[in-house]
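Retro notes
What went well: the complex prediction finally ran end to end.
Inputs used:
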Amino acid sequence: MGPLAVNEFITENTNLFLAFVIGIGFGFVLEQSGFSSSRKLAGVFYGYDTVVLKVFFTGAITAMLGLLFFSLFGWVDLSLVYINPTYLTSAILGGVVMGAGFIMGGYCPGTSFCGASIGKIDAWIFIVGLFIGVGLFGGGYPIWEKLYWAKDLGDPKVSESLGISDGVFALILILVALGMFWVAEWAEKKFPQKEY
Amino acid sequence: MQPRIILAAFIIPLGLIIAAVPQNTTKPYKLTANELLAEASSRTQYIAPEEVADMIIKKDPVLQLIDVRSKDEFEKYHLEGAINIPMNDLLSEDNSEILDQDVKMNVIYSNSTVTANEAWMIARQLGYKNNFVLEGGLNYWFDAIMNPQKPGSTSSDEEFAKYDFRKAASVALGGGNIEAIPNNESAPSAILKPIIKSPKKKKAAGGC
């Protein structure tokens, strides 16, 4: 509820409460879509089930188109939208660690809580591992503090670094995503899930 | 029909539209009168002369001084490295690039704070950030930095520390109060205590 909280239309506590409600809704939708199954999530990496890839990419494209059209209509000032700053080293290292954990555990942090809430034991174990990781990172922070903040690129946009407009980049991304969906569905046929 | 084809039939045209239309570069962001009043009365636009002096001496590349007085006044005296933007030229095309900053920190000054505040308000109303007003203007700058008065012997340590800083800054910036400086070898900038800014808080990143 960014703009409402920043402009003090709602208090910090209301903001947290709304986050709580939205979080429950998000979890519910994740569970209903089958994202609480580690097999479904790990399926992306083995090619037999690419729903996760398609859902998240469709979500990203929808949000992207929504923001660009809202900006076009003058409803949203894109220069005020917060962009997470890019720290290249930690983004790459974090991506590798997260990806490895994703393949091994079959969950990402959000879906693990989703799975845990419906009583999946593997999700519980995943969460234990998650907290061990949090503890290691927090406890050893002085060791990797420099690495963590290294290669600060600010908040660059791909469209800016390529020198094209946001709209053209959006179109390219849509075409790439649709191509990827097609490859993903081909992979689902090529690598069907093994029955155990 | 396959869902993928339905999806493609829906989003490809949208993508084509968004790629074809020019980007919306207008800035709908404007402060309401109430918001501007609240911001002006919170006095957060002011920056203390000590801090500016510190940045000038350290040649902080972030600092950009903007003199909104007339060209004549600017030529007679201006702060080191200042850019002259007389009030009447404030809204010209070239100057909007200077005022609309996200890298540098603009410190606007005039003789007092009246004209500088006017410039700040206009910039703020245009949605520009990173504009500040030199507290007290040039008049106070001369009193505080260029010609600091020694505090009374009963003053607090803080007052004396402030005085020492101002005295050192005065010498570094070529002020008049030379005899007040002890005649030793240490460079005046060594007396200056750097103003340590606390690092900006980083927002927590989200995941899936």
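What we learned: The mean pLDDT of chain A is 87.
What to try next: split runs per interface for comparison.
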